Amino acid sequence: MATETLNPRTWLYPTPRGLYCEPGDFYIDPAFAVPRAVITHGHGDHARPGHRSALATPETLAIMRTRFQDMPDTDQQPLKYGESVRVGEVEVGFAAAGHILGSAQAVLAYKGQRIVVSGDYKRRPDPTCPPFEPVPCDVFITEATFALPVFHHPSDAGEIGKLLRSVETFPERTHLVGVYALGKCQRVIRLLREAGYDQRVWLHGGLLSLCKLYQEHGVDLGDIAPVSEAILETFKGTIVLCPPSALADRWSRRFADPIAAVCSGWMGVRARARQRGAELPLIISDHADWPELTQTLKDVGAPKVWVTHGREEALVHYARGLGIDAEALHLAGREEEDS
Amino acid sequence: MQAFARLLDALSFQPARNAKLRLIETYLRETPDPDRGWALAALTGGLDFPSAKPALLRGFGQEKIGEELFALSYDYVGDLAETLALVWDTDPAAGPPPSLAEVVETLQRATRAQTPAILKRWLDALDSTGRWALLKLLTGALRVGVSARLAKQAAANIGNQPVDAVEEIWHGLEAPYRPLFDWLLQGAPRPQSNAGAAFLPAMLANPIDRAELASLDPAHFRAEWKWDGIRVQVAASGRLKRLYSRAGEDVSGSFPDVIEAIDFEGVFDGELLVRRESGVGPFNDLQQRLNRKTVTPKMLKEHPAHVRLYDVLWLEGQDLRTLTFDERRIRLEAWIALKERPRFDLSPLVTFADWGELAAKREGMRADGIEGLMLKRGDSAYLSGRPKGPWFKWKRDPMLADCVLMYAQRGHGKRSSFYSDFTFGCWRDGVEGGRELAPVGKAYFGFTDEELRWLDKWVRDHTTKRFGPVREVEHKLVLEVAFDGIARSTRHKSGVALRFPRISRIRTDKPAAEADTVDNLLRLLETASLPGVAGNS
Question: Which 150-179 residues of chain A touch chain B by CB within 8 A?
Answer without folding.
Answer: 150-152, 154, 162, 166, 169-170
